[in-house]
Amino acid sequence: GDHRDLHSFPTRRSSDLAGRKIGQVKELLKKAGMQAMMIENCGMENEKIYQTVDEIPENAGYYSLIIVKEN
Known about the structure:
alpha+beta; 2 helices; 3 strands; about 30% helix
């Protein structure tokens, strides 16, 4: 897959990025055929792990971390 669009995506504030633009991130990951998982509310009592891009909710919690596997 082509993942050039992901390299141009702003990452300066990852918590804002995940909360507000998670739908865009998911779409880019799917288009590029990349595998990813997300940890929502990372390190908190209500932490939740999503194993695939499709499982990631459109509205992520404030402390979310997306991990992308490079192909």
